[in-house]
Input
Amino acid sequence: MANIYTNTLIDGEITPKDHAAISITSSAVLYGLSVYTVFSLKKTDSGWLVFRLPEHLARLQQSGRLIGLTLKNITPLLELHTFTKHLSALLEANQPATDQFCRLTIHVSAEVPGVRTRDLSVT
Output
């Protein structure tokens, strides 16, 4: 069974999940303009092992580009070193006790009519 923890990571900030929001009129909600990846995390005595994180981050960015998303504002957050730092902070904030799956999603947060994808803000 999946666990939904108290905290989430949105735009590089640890945020209580109840405060992490995207508008119901965003392109992600209205037109499904989102891409995601899911990766596993294994808890060990010496810390967390993340399964193929570089490949997951690269594939997520490629998926975004394939549907025409402009990822300029979040590309720095998806660099391996930066994302690893944020992921560690999220794990520390939530304190999971067992192995986990993590879903990383890019949403088009812009509120524009139609399914245009270029030069729109993403979260």
Summary: Residues 80-94 form the longest helix (15 residues). Strands lie at 7-10, 13-16, 34-44, 47-50, 100-107. The chain has three helices and five strands.
